[in-house]
Amino acid sequence: MTARTLLGLLVAGLVLAALAALPLFAGPYAVTLMIGMTGYVVLATAWGLFSGPTRYVSLATVAFFGIGAYTVGVFSETLPYPLVLLVAALIGLAVALVVGLSTLRLAGVYFVIFTFGLAELIRQLVTWYEVNVTGTLGRYIFLPVTPEGIYWQLLALAAATFLFSWGIGRTRWGLALKVIGDDEVVASHCGIDITRLKLALFAVSAVIITLVGAIQAPRWTYIEPSIAFNPTISFLTLIMALLGGADRLWGPLLGAIPLFLLFEWLSANFPNHYPIILGLVFIAIVFLLPKGVLAAVESRLRKGGAR
Amino acid sequence: MSELLALDGLTKRFGGLTAVNAVSFSLERGEVVGLLGPNGSGKTTVLNMISGFLPPTGGRIALNGEAISGLRPNRIARKGVARTFQLVRALPSLTVAENVVTALAFGRRTLWGKAAHEAAHAHLAAVGLAGRADQPAGALTYIDQKRMELARALAAEPELLLLDEWLAGLNPTELRIGIDLILSLKERGITVLLVEHVMDAIRALCGRAIVMNAGRKIADGPTAETLRDPEVVRAYLGDGHA
């Protein structure tokens, strides 16, 4: 390990400690804001973990997010909290493996549509089950978790996600992901098992997303399928990761923070026009920064340097 | 000499088109063999089936007596088959060295870190790309990309190397360098199957030539004799010249 990586880890650790200490100084609104923001930072980073190198656009984010939230809704009164999180992660993993095995051979737009359909399918299945079997649509979640507790859990998950992302970039699997992003035919002819690698990455990404849903669930107190499986979550995650640049470690973070704050401000000040403005922001990002902020800054710098 | 590769009744159909029709031949270890034929005769399709890029419709491919037909390319690569592509496939966002490290890291020896970088530099030097290791692969010229692709294929330490028109598009000086490079592989004992249109190169390199036409094998033997075979001449030049 070089001095530079040690320094980087030290700085990252200090930033993490400062962020963790925030609730001790800030008020409840700031904590609420930080929960939402950290949640989206993790969602976008986990999304980019799989979609950045493979260039598969997944709209299944909310499928896993909702699975996490619902697992907490179902088991919160019967199992101890850490076990609930573990069950949520395992369900997310199982669904990701089944979905991954059956869909990762789909290419391009077929994969996008499949993942969107998957999220809707799971939402309808949960709705059907709640109406016909349990007899009620909503569920209450009464857990003795404080907002600070939720924030710290999300922060720990964020740290773990970044550590995983950064760590894999240093192994030969990180190189394999770059190769897959460039040319899958060459990748497989060099001995890389592309299907297995994609599946593993999809599963890790899905488990992280499931945990975000599970950790955030107690915030709602009351959940029903239209809340836990709201497709806007998938779209927001996607556009945040794209704005920052999905194929870079810090890209999704740089997209998630400004967009989360913007959407928060918009929904507070323009509640009636919020969806319209949201749509316009989506279009603007795709037109103006198709490869993300980081890539745009880098190419600007490179041009400046060449001059 | 022992048999390395054996094709038995290899067939590939795309819908109603039979691109490769019951082709059988075998390669001895250490041979350099040319696979010839007019455009569209199925040569590249044969290579694609050997490397696992396309699954065969029928027939069998065996490497060292073990069936490899229908395996995915990554499995076949690890059994000792490497290739270059007709249209050169660099990994443009990687550096030249990373291109070669890929084959080392996922090849049969799984080299990584310092050992992989040293090995990559050695492979690059062997194809004349010493000192270019840190350049982006996308910035190389066509011939240098071809060299890099060959270094990548050799880094996998193959027993069988498939070259798909690797010499096409080179000028006479480059061609001379290219031929010398392939001759050096022969000295290292690597078995090479090359699809090629450059006749001078085939005469210089290949002791034996296999000729295909319209998906079938029409000739197989010592290069000079095979090229004089009336059926081969007819396939290339038409009836009047046979």
UniProtKB/TrEMBL annotation, chain A:
Membrane topology, as annotated: Multi-pass membrane protein
Pfam families registered for this protein in UniProt: BPD_transp_2
- Which GO MF term does the entry hold, naming one? branched-chain amino acid transmembrane transporter activity
The GO cellular component terms are: plasma membrane
Keywords (alphabetical) are: Cell membrane, Membrane, Transmembrane, Transmembrane helix
The positions making up the signal sequence are none
Provide the protein's localization. Answer: Cell membrane
Instruction: Give me the segments passing through the membrane.
Output: 30-50, 57-75, 81-101, 108-129, 149-168, 199-217, 223-243, 250-268, 274-297
PANTHER family xrefs = HIGH-AFFINITY BRANCHED-CHAIN AMINO ACID TRANSPORT PROTEIN BRAE, HIGH-AFFINITY BRANCHED-CHAIN AMINO ACID TRANSPORT SYSTEM PERMEASE
Per its record, how is this protein called by name?
Answer: Amino acid/amide ABC transporter membrane protein 2 (HAAT family)
Record the organism.
Shinella granuli
Organism taxonomic ancestry: Bacteria, Pseudomonadati, Pseudomonadota, Alphaproteobacteria, Hyphomicrobiales
Automatic annotation (TrEMBL), chain B:
Q: Which GO terms describe its biological process?
A: D-alanine transmembrane transport; L-alanine transport; L-isoleucine import across plasma membrane; L-valine import across plasma membrane
Gene Ontology MF, one:
L-isoleucine transmembrane transporter activity
Cite the ABC transporter domain residue spans from the record. Answer: 5-239
Q: Which InterPro entries match?
A: AAA+_ATPase (IPR003593), ABC_AA/LPS_Transport (IPR051120), ABC_transporter-like_ATP-bd (IPR003439), BCA_ABC_TP_C (IPR032823), P-loop_NTPase (IPR027417)
The UniProt entry's GO CC annotations, sorted and at most eight, read: plasma membrane
Keywords noted in UniProt? ATP-binding, Nucleotide-binding, Transport
Q: What is this protein called?
A: Amino acid/amide ABC transporter ATP-binding protein 1 (HAAT family)
